[in-house]
Amino acid sequence: MNEPRGIIRLSVKVGQILLLGVKLQLLFLLFALRGAVVLGVFPALAACAKLILRRMEKRPDEVGALFGTARDTWPALYAEFRTFYQQAFWEMNGIGYLGLLAVAALVVDLAVNQAFLHSAVLQWGLIVLLVGVLSYWLYVLTIYARYQLHFWQYFRQALIISVAHFTNTLAIVIGSVAATALLVLFPALSLVALVPLYLTPTVWFSYQSCQRVEAVMHYAA
Questions:
Q1: Which domain holds residue 173?
Q2: Which domain of life does the protein's organism represent (predicted)?
């Protein structure tokens, strides 16, 4: 039987990607609820990013696979998601809530300075710090999915890589804006693939930054 080509092959690949996105969305919701949302969201996000990253790092036998591979079936995805979710549970909650605390503290400081201190220098300093923390958020999921580091090293690595390739950081922001525009055009996507839609450009461009930094370090070594 001849393998489909052209527009038929493209349609099948798009359908395959959409189906994978729907499965990841369901897994995210299922495991976020398993952690009572408060403790489930961050490890579920990390697991979702891990699965997306692994599919960007396709093995040679998977390249060009038209109808996906055995690991994209629901039982295989569920087992893979659950394994990483369990491994990341406590550490990712620590990383996630420390990041949120930093954002909240900087926002409060900005509000206090604007209302009472009126210091332009302090205001710009706080804005720079806030941008740094938000940049950290754009990279930390991919850093956590790609490397095995000690707890505090994830923060340092995410900040270093976000600064090292600012163009990719900007590309992540543009990708997020594009994802938002797509959701406006097709609101139904928010019900079936919201998380993968935002995570995919984030993981892809942060993954490119990781590879470039790794290449520079390898060359320097």
A1: 6-219
A2: Bacteria
